[in-house]
Structure formats: structure tokens, C-alpha cells
Sequence to fold (248 residues):
Amino acid sequence: MEMMHATFAFFLMLNPSVSERVTYVVDQLTQTGFSRREAEAFFQNRRLKTYPEREVAPRKIDWDSFIANLVSRESVQRGTTFLSRNHAVLSAAEERFGVPKEVLSGLVRVETNFGQNTGNYVTFNVFYTQLIRSEAEARWKRAADNLVSLATYCKRLRKNCFRIKGSYGGAIGFSQFLPHTLETYGADGNGDGKVDVFQWPDAIFSAANFLVEHGWHTDKLVALGKYYGSPEGYPRAVLAYTEALQKE
Fold:
């Protein structure tokens, strides 16, 4: 253990510009149940790296083109198949939260194409990149919060954090939650006492819970905009797909 602390201290000496931020994360982890050795080990892992900025930069979406493809016949047919295969959990979520099963199906169609595209970026490294490269304190502290929540998620589910992959922005699972958001709005859909957004019951219940907590029953467009982080295009896409499913 003494050698690990010495190695970690040496790492900070070599990287004085990041020492404050890494130490901040380590301190936060120790306050949430990690030993200091466990916390420091994340930043000694051989898989730890930063991504080139262009790889994790926000992407521009042509929403009109996206929606046109989204409501194509083949795309909608895949949605009806998803509804059929997951009818029980979608219906349970609709009954509990009041969010129609077609909306929840539309959301996961837009987010991950029904779980087929959950992302190929190592999520810990996405937030580590943000932690190191963000200039504004508020932004790097958001990255720190997500690192702490991700580490907690991995510990709870006994997963290797460097095997969790997600989007270029750090969202994970079938319904694409940021780890810190998941910690707040995640919902257990299968009754096992855990929330794992790589399982459909939890992913669907968590999405429904988030929408309700962000005003679904008052303003659907606002709630969907909050889910994506921007009102531009996304609410239109989900609702267009919802309408197409309801017509089937």
C-alpha cells in the first residue's frame, strides 16, 4: 500500500496541472465508501487515457433528415417488434409512471437503436478527458461528479469501470444516462434492488422516471428536451416515432 501511495504521489508530481482535479476526485471517492487505495487505483490503471478533443466534441445533427429516416417503414417495423418483445415491462412502466409505452420505445429507438448502439467509448476515459481538459471549474467538476457516480455504479454492480462503454459524451446503457444523472433518477425495473441500464427493465423504468421528474405530465416537449440536454430536434424525433408506432 505504501508503494501505491508513493506511485500516485509521483504521478501527481509529473502532472502538476491535473493534480488538483485528480485529488478532488480521489477525495470525493473516499467520502462515498472507497478506500484511498481503491480511489487512487483508478488513476493508475493502464487503460486510463484521454481522448483527442475532436472525438468527444458535441456533434451536429440534421434533425429533419434524421426524423425522415426514423419514421421509415423498416424503422417503424423494428419498433413494433420491440414493443411486442418488451410488452410486459413497457406496460408496467406505463402503469407506474404514466408515460406511454410508445414514447419509451421511441426514446430508446432514438438513443441507441433499441440497444444496438450504446457507444464504443470507455466512459471513465470520457470523463477523465473532460476533467483534465475543461477550462471552466463548473465543467471539470461536473466531470468529477460523473467519475464518482460511475465508480459507485461499477462497485455496486461489481463491474470493471474500464469495461463500461458509452457515448462520446459519457452516456451509458440502453437509455443513455450520464452516471451522475442515473444516480439521481435511476429506477429498479426488475426488483433486484439494483439499477443497471444495460438491462431493459431498469433502462425503461429509469427513462420513464426521469421524464416524469422533469415535468412529463405538464409539458412533454420540455421533459424530452431535458432528457437529451437540448430542446432542438430531439423531442420532435421521439414524438414523431411515437406517432408512427401508434398508427400501426
Q: What stands out?
A: Residues 2-44+119-166 form a domain with the Helicase, Ruva Protein; domain 3 fold (CATH 1.10.8).
